[in-house]
Amino acid sequence: MGRTETLPERTARGGPERPVSPTAALVAAVLGFFVITLDVSGVTIALPAIGRDLGGSLSGLQWVADGYTLMVAALMLSAGTLSDAVGARHAYACGLAAFTLASLACGAAPTLATLTAARVAQGGAAAVMVPASLALIRQSFADPGERARGIALWTLGGAVAIAAGPVLGGLFTTQWSWRGVFLLNVPAGLAGLLVLRRAARSPRRPAALDLPGQLTAVVALASLTYAVIEGGHRGLTGAVPVAAGLAAAAGAAFVTVQARRRAPMLPLGVFRDRAVGVPVLAGFALNAAFYGGVFVLSLFFQEQRGWSAFAAGLMFAPMALVTAAFNHLSPPLVSRLGARTVIVAGLGLSALGIGGLAAVGTGTPAWAIVVLTVPLGTGGALAMPALTTLMLDGVPAERAGVAAALLNTVRQTGGALGIAVFGALLARGFAAGMRASLIIAACLLAASALTASALLGRAGGGPRGSSGAARRGRRRVR
Questions:
Q1: CA atoms within 13 A of residue 376's CA, in its CB half-sphere
Q2: Longest dimension (CA), the chain
Q3: pTM for this structure?
Q4: What pLDDT score does 328 carry?
Q5: Residue 6 φ/ψ, nearest 5 degrees
Q6: What are the residues whose beta carbons fall under 8 Å from the beta carbon of 345, sequence distance 6 or more?
Q7: Three-state secondary structure call for residue 471
Q8: Computed from CA positions of residues 78, 208, 138, 387, in that sequence, does the dihedral angle turn out positive or negative?
Q9: Helix axes 22-54, 144-175, angle to 10 degrees
Q10: Which of 146, 201, 153, 154 has its CA nearest to residue 36?
């Protein structure tokens, strides 16, 4: 992987050939995915400092976190179509440039409302980047083995960012300011744009944007998130019941639109294949548990135990290390044991870890909490590369952008709803809310593990992973 070759790619003025490299596409994709994922877990640890600096209630801080993930989830499916239509490299470059500018705006935000608006812009840019980055890898490596290793590295970048985000966020917040969490993205974004210049141009596929589907998706997710966040703080009063009803109506309209359009942004038929359904379910559960768990624990460390942001972030450092290690081990384990075994084991480990954290209290020793975070990170690191590969192998190459968008849409939706639901539970009483949140996360992961074990069967259980599921997926998606 990483062999550089010269291809006849000319500039718009007809300049000389420029050397291109699959490795350049991979490096740019991993770097971008790292920073957009870092902005979830890194910002979470900085929320108490943001609240002290800019003011605002717990619900306001939830919107700083969820404004980002909500836009990622809501726009991801259309972004996948956009990536296929204009070419993954071009879409990724535009998204990375917009993300860098939005990060600069976040770092300079004078009020909580301004910060939330900039976070929404960040989320929109990230929505373009995620499917385009995976499509870049899918198109740059024709060999399945090299492609699997590329996907594993891409997933590793996100996994390390999720786990290391609290450490870096705590370091910046304690030693300088929470603004550093956002400003870190600026040099990283510029570096990614420079590397991307050496990536080969991506093919384009005729695709029409599904505006009715996109509109109903945004309304459904935004209304649902509002109903959960505000309902937890205000109860079923005011606009909360209206938002809940609007979410249900928009969700039903979305399904109807997708079923009737000739070219929907989400072909509903893909859910018939287990190689698609299992990653969707498990990806939702993993992100809901992880993002929601980090959100709860970050507040617990700082608000209940009185630790600094840096000390709170360090509590996640061991989890970051095991996440990096086991994420890299996931592909060879899939080759040896099969995707089914790795996925089920990963989900089960995560369930045990976060279930054990439900017993944590203000008197629990720090070392015991750290020990319990390790299986949470280990399980996610094992399961996610296997789930991603299973998903992409289940669709033809020209639909890679849509597949990547679907998987990451449900993952980001899980993260947004995890933070919204867990924050609502905390508003009713921190100790009881924290315990209930972590138990719910453990049950969700355990249910996903049982479902994966039952549904994958031979399709994901052989030593070669999901080749049978991939063939069926190709027929159905066409």
A1: 32
A2: 68
A3: 0.77
A4: 75
A5: -100, 125
A6: 379, 382, 383
A7: helix
A8: positive
A9: 30
A10: 154
Contact 210, 261 (CB under 8 A): yes
Residue 74 CB-half CA count within 13 A: 31
**Residue pointed to by tokens 């990060």:** 103
> Whose structure tokens read 């997933």?
155
Query: Within its chain, how far is the Cα of 397 from the centroid?
Result: 22
Confidence of residue 144 (pLDDT cuts 50, 70, 90): confident
Could you report the per-residue pLDDT of 328-362, keeping only the tens digit for each?
788 788 888 888 899 999 999 999 999 999 999 98
User: How many separate helices (H) and strands (E) can be counted in the chain?
Assistant: 17, 2
Reported as type and span, the H/E element at residue 5 is strand 5-6
Closest CA to 21 of 146, 108, 145: 146
Distance CA 10, CA 111 (A): 46
State how far the Cα of 99 lies from the Cα of 32, in Å rounded to an integer: 9
Q: Is the pLDDT of residue 10 over 50?
A: no
Phi and psi angles of residue 356, each rounded to the nearest 5 degrees, phi first: -65, -35
Between CA 447 and CA 348 the distance in angstroms is 9
